[in-house]
Amino acid sequence: QKEDVVVTLLPAGHCPGSVMYVLSILSMFHPLAFNEEFDPSVAVCRFLFEGENGTVLYTGDFRLAKGEVARMELLHSGTRVKDIQSVYLDTTFCDPKFYHIPSREECLNGILELVRSWTSLSRNHVVWLNCKAAYGYEYLFINLSEELGIKVHMNKLDMFRNMPDILCHVTTDPHTQIHACRHPRDDDCFRGNRLPCGMTCFNGTPLHIISIKPSTMWFGERKK
Ligand SMILES: [Zn+2]
């Protein structure tokens, strides 16, 4: 049996470009999909689909802020939420040991206040963001830069060349108080009071460095 399937891509908020899939299986070809209300972000595909009917949400890895789903127009039909028959929830954190993970906003506010209080002590007080993955910290970098007016130092920016929204918040100039630069032995650098980019002092005075390691896994490893 042949069926038409509407595939809708929703922002997943995980790393730049990540999406969630909504599959709507139409029991017959639906001409409305091509009228003037046709949304170009909804790709209509043809699938050989056997058996089930209905709408399926496959999340993939995702990171969404509270209320973000409620604001997704593509999950709504008029004033109501679309009926979804099956959800495939892809998450590392469906485990009792992750009994509480603070929201993205709570984490941002905690980091923001720590960075604000440290960097305001003197120009020599700097923060190293110990970011292990290549992507996924854009929200943090942008908000720190916007709130504190301090750009984030990175080894290179080519990874963001297609993301103009973040380029004005990061810099390759190490003379800044927030660093997310990397070195193969960056933990050793930190223990030696040196930033991964090699900076140890500013205007001849040694730096005072604290490190912040953004991590969700930590919430599953803590003892209480
Ligand atoms: Zn640096």
Describe this entry's structure for a reader:
- With about 220 residues, the chain is of the alpha/beta class.
- The protein folds into two domains: about 1-90, no CATH class; about 105-220, Rossmann fold (3-Layer(aba) Sandwich), CATH 3.40.50.
- The chain has five helices and 14 strands.
- The chain has helices at about 105-120, 140-150, 165, 185-190, 220, and strands at about 1-10, 20-25, 40-50, 55-60, 75, 80, 85-90, 125-130, 150-155, 170, 180, 200, 205, 210.
- The strands form four sheets. The chain has a five-stranded mixed β-sheet, with no helix packed on it. The protein has a five-stranded parallel β-sheet with strand order 10-9-11-8-14.
- The model is unreliable at about 25-50 (pLDDT under 50).
- Zinc ion (ZN) binds near residues 181, 195 and 196.
Summarize this structure as a short list of keywords or feature phrases.
Rossmann fold; 2 domains; binds zinc ion; 5 helices; 5-stranded mixed sheet; DNA recombination; alpha/beta; exonuclease; 224 residues; elongated
